[in-house]
Amino acid sequence: MAASLLHVRFTSPSLPSPVLRRSSCRPAATPTRIYAKIREIFMPALSSTMTEGKIVSWVKSEGDRLAKGESVVVVESDKADMDVETFYDGFLAAIMVEEGGVAPVGSAIALLAESEDEIPLAKSQASSSPSSPAIAPVADSPAPSEAPTPPPSQTAPPPRASSASASLSAHPASEGGQRIVATPFAKKLAKELKVELAAVTGTGPQGRIVAKDVEAAAASGSTVPREPKTVAETGAAKVPTSPIIQLGTVVPFTTMQGAVSKNMVESLSVPTFRVGYTITTNALDELYKKIKSKGVTMTALLAKATSMALIKHPVVNSSCRDGKSFTYNSSINIAVAVAIDGGLITPVLQDADKVDIYSLSRKWKELVDKARAKQLQPHEYNTGTFTLSNLGMFGVDRFDAILPPGTGAIMAVGASQPTVVASKDGRIGLKNQMQVNVTADHRVIYGADLAAFLQTLAQIIENPKDLTM
Fold first, then answer.
1. Which pTM value belongs to this model?
2. Among the four 3, 7, 127, 207, which has the fewest Cβ within 10 Å?
């Protein structure tokens, strides 16, 4: 995945930008003096909600020659890490924001010189530029010297196990089910150079593996595959590991956490209400058992059922953005909340009503892998028209969800649990039931709308034969 550096401008040591100037008092035949071309590379806007970006790693170093279309830097936006390309040939003359640094969208992060001779001039300009971003690199973790000394009774774990534990708790990726902290470009480079990422030590922020780490590993021959796990290790790996937390420390928001915080505060301005419903899931559970082996997930089944109900109740799929009107969305795009290290993101199953359950499941797996590797493209997480949040997989029986800005409704799905219920003829029986609670924008959607939608959804789930058509 790559984005383009869309913002560049010419600068000159002696003239204000732009540097190509033509005096109107001189004859037209007078040649235009062209000064050294030094372009400012700006922090790009990688999403509509992005206000600042964090430099994950520089793919190129100062003095490197750049060709149009080459990746230059990896930027962390509010939702993903993206390789950013350049539109111009030249030399990366001066880096103005180092790895780990944060810069506002539109501010200069580096200078690009047209020729090698202009590199010293660009460096001088970068050091004296008043517009250089003053935002210091974010301290994601305290320095080793500040770490508290463990009590004498604690035994230090073996170095290899400690390293593996840190890797598992740092950042989720999608290589063999293990978490690998690496930039998208580093992963691509590792495949090309046949370097095993698990054997590479990262030098980027929070120990993230960057391109130069992979190159160094390739040069030193560190391509040893992972050691096979013992039975004990395999069993331990199934238990979720928590990151090491130092009590009493102040931890700044990550870029993603900042975006989530902003959205949640914005949601408070929307008048919402909630409606709950109990749905029997015996038939859905049986269907899931039959088609699970074909790669179908419960998330895809719920998304498909929801999309089919939304076809009959388009007002629940609508949205109000300006407080004066609302839009009947032409597509049914089901966003599903996914928790990842350092935040929350909602990958979107687009046109869920038009895609068969098998394709929908394959797409969902792809989206989750990309989300955990922070490689989702903007259209894959910001185009949802209705949102699902499922904590049932954790045994939660009921909860309320906060409405994401720009959407009309979000449905919180609880766990399906065996419940003793009475039938209409007075008999007592055991049925699997789940609780769903929908939070909706009351400016657009009313109680009767949600009640009708939930009745339809219950009918689809309790008689799910149409889900596989």
1. 0.59
2. 127
